[in-house]
Amino acid sequence: MRNEKIAILIKRAALVVEKISNNILAPYDLTNAQFKILMMLYKNPDQTVRQADIESRFSMTNPTVTGIIQNLEKKNLVQRVENPNDKRSKLLVLTPQAREMEQKMYELSERREKEVTSHWTKEECEQLIVLLNKLLD
């Protein structure tokens, strides 16, 4: 086993996952960050996702998320609509174009997961999930 700190290994692993993701997503003109936001919106069909929810979920800053959302808007994948429950915030909704891509995005998500975990047994994957969830708690 290499003698490295856990924090460094986690960061390096995250960079590997991002690189794999970006390679898979490049033909669709999407970055990993854009993909994560789209997937969050796909998984929340009730259309109640605010920018603050994305910032919290992915530990991103407001300016970072703003830039990603603006790029998704330019690609006609996301739009901001008025929040009926809070006039100070906007809700993010998927455009019809993004809805048409939904199945393909889920397929790409599965492909990414398979590529990332291709060298591990099912038990190793399950153990890693447990350990990462402990870290995040």
Explain the overall architecture.
By secondary structure, the chain is mainly alpha-helical. Helices cover 64% and strands 9% of the residues. The chain contains seven helices and three strands. The chain has helices at 6-25, 32-42, 51-58, 62-74, 96-100, 102-117, 122-136, and strands at residues 49-50, 78-82, 90-94. It has a three-stranded antiparallel sheet with strand order 1-3-2. β2 and β3 (90-94) form a beta hairpin. α1 (6-25) crosses α6 (102-117) and α3 crosses α4 (62-74). The longest helix has 20 residues, at 6-25. It is globular, with a radius of gyration of 17 Å. The chain starts with 5 loop residues before the first helix and ends with a helix. 12% of the residues are buried.
| Overall geometry | globular
Order of SSEs, N→C? HHEHHEEHHH
* Overall SS class: mainly alpha
Number of helices: 7
Secondary-structure blueprint:
Layout: H1 6-25, H2 32-42, E1 49-50, H3 51-58, H4 62-74, E2 78-82, E3 90-94, H5 96-100, H6 102-117, H7 122-136
Antiparallel strand pairs: 1-3, 2-3
How would you summarize what this structure contains?
This protein has 137 residues and is mostly helical. The chain has seven helices and three strands; from the N terminus they run ααβααββααα.
